[in-house]
Amino acid sequence: MPSPAEPSACLDLRGTPCPLNYIRATLALETLDPGAWLQLDLDRGEPEDMVIAGLRQAGHPVVSGPHPEAADAAVRLLVCRDGG
Length: 84
Prior knowledge:
By secondary structure, this protein is an alpha+beta fold. It is built from two helices and four strands; from the N terminus they run βαβαββ.
């Protein structure tokens, strides 16, 4: 099983408005096997808050950290499909 350090897929949703970013994240998770990790890049603020809340409510563990290239403007999430 992949670890958070080795996500199965990556998706850059910076610049994508709510709720489209949540919908795209959910669709990307559906393509992964249970227990696989998805790396998501999101804008800070409302996109970060709404996507994290929605994914956690759906039962997916989420690890959040600063984006390595744009820490002030973006966040990098690691999301485990269905909690493994």
